[in-house]
Inverse folding.
């Protein structure tokens, strides 16, 4: 069976072009990861690629782990799939001892702490939140390839830290790092790029090792990452980039969508393939997404691959207060659970972490377990570590029981009960153990305790976490790349989305893309809510709701609903 057999026509076109520059403009839910992995597998199957000479780069360790896992499932081993930082660090660690005669510098594990020490030397009294903001500014400066002096010329400040103080603080931070022979994460990219520019032999060795490049989420590339990519490539042109300009939501961290939008100008002979068939969402949801992004640079027109299961448009509900809004979301989720949806199929997404508290409390009051995305990693949870160790230990001792009865016994000994406890810390532990048991229940018949524990360790390495039977709470940023059948988007009010400090055109456009990411996470149902007041401040509905509604008023893209309570109802 060919690696191309499972692809649609457009996906197959993208995956079958193995040489030269290729740009895959892949809309939300169009199968970009499938295209990346099947393209690499096709290249290996046909002999066009030698696996260990392929470098696939992405932006998170989890995404890199997913690429490796999917390639393994396709029978492809040996392909290097890493983040930009991991690839650069590997090269630094390999070449630095030869060039400098000593091991590569260590990596700072806490930038804020070092910045605090630099601030103390300058007699600046800065709180932790300000130091974090300064750290973010330093990261932006470095990935934008600006020196401290060039950054100072921009006149930027951080809170009460003025331009001159910010420059002095950065200088002190760099001196401390140099004295301790340390690098931060951005230095890793800068040092690797500098090494490749200054050492032709190193550049030649890297280019000999890696002949074919794939870059995922190319809309998120920063100037520094793009420069490093250029140095890896040299004068070769075997590069495939995949991205969606409408999902550029990290401009604040240095991402520049122009590298994706201008790829055809950079490589005039590039093949550009557009993936617009969406395999995730119902047509009414895609209609809202398309209306929001209509006319924006690089916007793709998403078309549903499947006939509509439901013709219901996304709903919009207004509430008086944020507390009312959270309670209304909890009531809607209660109804969905009663109708047969599982908790893991439901997500509540919001613009900022500050919005999560009221929602989490409302769900707990309704007896609904929830988990916050971006918290502790599943395999780092103490109860999960304990369970994996117990399963490994049980695999050594001989037993007459079968695989699944042994797993059940171990989980019960660790505290897994038949019925879940009330929402809270104990419920989180229960859900984690239940998720491990669910993996065992879904394992092939020939699975043993040893192979199961080895599988768990492999999943931990790749950050391939099991699904918890809880409602997911997440910021819109953290939700990117994920999907759920039922999505509730909270806080669609001016000042929240777009957020209050987004005032110029570019910042508002970034907020629009963030809203688009939220809409396209939903597969079957989508609800959007907002509250007319936040504390003592009155608010208006988000301009994005108005844009979607006025763009397609009368076509049924959005349906306004009223809360169940008699308070705060607004009828369309």
């Amino acid at each position: 069976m060919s690696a191309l057999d499972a692809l649609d026509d457009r996906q197959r076109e993208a995956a079958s072009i193995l040489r030269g520059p290729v740009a895959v403009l892949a809309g939300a839910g169009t199968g970009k990861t499938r295209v990346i992995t099947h393209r690499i597998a096709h290249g290996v199957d046909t002999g066009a690629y030698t696996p260990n000479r392929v470098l696939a780069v992405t932006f998170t360790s989890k995404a890199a782990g997913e690429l490796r896992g999917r390639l393994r499932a396709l029978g492809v081993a040996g392909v290097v799939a890493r983040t930009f930082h991991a690839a650069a660090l590997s090269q630094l660690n390999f070449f630095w001892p030869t060039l400098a005669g000593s091991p590569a510098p260590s990596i700072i594990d806490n930038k804020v702490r070092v910045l605090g020490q630099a601030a103390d030397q300058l007699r600046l009294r800065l709180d932790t939140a300000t130091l974090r903001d300064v750290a973010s500014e330093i990261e932006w400066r470095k990935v934008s390839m600006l020196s401290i002096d060039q950054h100072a010329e921009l006149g930027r400040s951080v809170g009460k830290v003025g331009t001159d103080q910010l420059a002095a603080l950065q200088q002190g931070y760099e001196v401390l790092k140099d004295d301790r022979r340390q690098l931060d994460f951005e230095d890793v990219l800068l040092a690797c790029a500098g090494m490749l520019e200054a050492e032709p032999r190193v550049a030649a060795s890297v280019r000999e090792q890696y002949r074919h490049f794939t870059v995922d989420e190319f809309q998120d590339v920063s100037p520094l990452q793009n420069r490093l990519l250029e140095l890896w490539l040299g004068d070769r042109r075997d590069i495939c980039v995949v991205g969606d300009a409408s999902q550029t939501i990290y401009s604040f961290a240095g991402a520049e969508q122009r590298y994706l939008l201008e790829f055809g100008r950079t490589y005039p002979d590039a093949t550009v393939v557009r993936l617009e068939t969406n395999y995730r969402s119902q047509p009414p949801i895609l209609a809202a997404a398309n209306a929001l992004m209509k006319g924006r640079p690089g916007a793709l027109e998403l078309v549903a691959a499947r006939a509509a299961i439901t013709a219901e448009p996304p709903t919009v509900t207004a509430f008086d207060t944020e507390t009312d809004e959270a309670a209304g979301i909890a009531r809607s989720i209660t109804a969905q659970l009663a109708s047969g949806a599982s908790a893991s199929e439901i997500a509540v997404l919001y613009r900022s972490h500050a919005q999560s508290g009221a929602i989490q409390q409302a769900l707990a009051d309704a007896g609904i377990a929830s988990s916050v995305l971006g918290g502790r990693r599943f395999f780092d949870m103490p109860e999960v570590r304990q369970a994996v160790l117990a399963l490994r230990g049980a695999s050594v001792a001989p037993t007459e029981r079968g695989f699944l009865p042994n797993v059940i016994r171990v989980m019960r000994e660790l505290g897994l009960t038949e019925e879940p406890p009330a929402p809270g810390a104990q419920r989180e532990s229960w859900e984690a153990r239940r998720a491990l048991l669910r993996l065992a229940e879904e394992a092939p018949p020939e699975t043993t305790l040893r192979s199961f524990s080895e599988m768990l360790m492999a999943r931990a390495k790749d950050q391939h976490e099991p699904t918890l039977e809880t409602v997911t709470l997440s910021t819109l940023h953290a939700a990117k790349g994920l999907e759920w059948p039922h999505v509730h988007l909270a806080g669609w009010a001016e000042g929240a989305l777009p957020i209050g400090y987004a005032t110029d055109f570019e910042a508002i456009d970034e907020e629009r893309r963030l809203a688009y990411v939220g809409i396209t996470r939903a597969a079957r149902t989508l609800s959007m809510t907002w509250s007319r007041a936040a504390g003592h401040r009155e608010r208006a509905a988000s301009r994005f709701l108005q844009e979607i509604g006025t763009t397609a008023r009368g076509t049924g893209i959005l349906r306004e609903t009223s809360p169940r309570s008699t308070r705060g109802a607004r009828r369309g």
The first strand starts at residue 22 and ends at 26. The first helix runs from residue 9 to 16. The chain has four domains: 9-88+189-275, 106-180, 283-375+470-561, 378-462.
